[in-house]
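A.,

Following up on our hallway conversation. Structure tokens first:
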């Protein structure tokens, strides 16, 4: 990789890089990895987060969406940040992730409009969550953002999360509680 290309890539991903180094992100990820240490099904650690981020960005490019790369990555990296709270307190992870994600995104220099879009995408990425746009509206009132970009971000995050799993290689796929139609049984991305 040429030096200039590497420097441009690092600048382009600066805010996402700040997310993975944020103490709140690190502590939540470490706690989650401890809680899932003996889990036989898909885990939600850093590998999963990066798979979702990369897929979400591939979908962004393939669909011609104009979402900033670091913004897509940051949102995907934070989509499961509430998972350990779900395990410990029973709060759906999409809902539990809103507050820590908001703090991290704020600290990492994202705009209020970006934060509102990211939080809505995080709140709506899970089929099991009751979290919705009302939670975001209460937390981030009157934050004007582009509804089309917001919809696109929610779409690529949801698709990236669901298609990140390689069920065709999983030894316990038949015991998994995912509906059969959701299981990725062939190589696609």
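Then the amino acids I'd put at each of the 189 positions:
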């Amino acid at each position: 990789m040429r030096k200039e290309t590497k420097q441009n890539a690092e600048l382009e991903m600066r805010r996402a890089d700040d997310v993975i180094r944020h103490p709140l992100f690190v502590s939540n990820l470490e706690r989650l990895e401890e809680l899932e240490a003996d889990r036989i099904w898909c885990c939600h650690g850093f590998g999963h987060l990066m798979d979702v981020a990369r897929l979400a960005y591939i979908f962004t490019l393939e669909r011609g969406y104009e979402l900033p790369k670091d913004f897509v990555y940051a949102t995907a990296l934070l989509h499961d940040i509430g998972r350990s709270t779900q395990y410990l307190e029973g709060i759906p992870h999409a809902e539990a992730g809103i507050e820590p994600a908001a703090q991290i995104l704020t600290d990492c220099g994202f705009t209020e409009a970006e934060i509102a879009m990211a939080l809505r995408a995080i709140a709506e990425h899970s089929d099991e969550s009751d979290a919705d746009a009302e939670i975001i509206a209460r937390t981030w009132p009157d934050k004007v953002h582009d509804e089309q970009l917001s919809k696109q971000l929610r779409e690529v995050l949801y698709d990236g999360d669901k298609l990140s799993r390689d069920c065709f290689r999983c030894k316990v796929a038949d015991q998994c509680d995912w509906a059969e139609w959701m299981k990725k049984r062939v190589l696609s991305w």
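The longest helix spans residues 46-62. Curious whether your intuition agrees with the design.

B.
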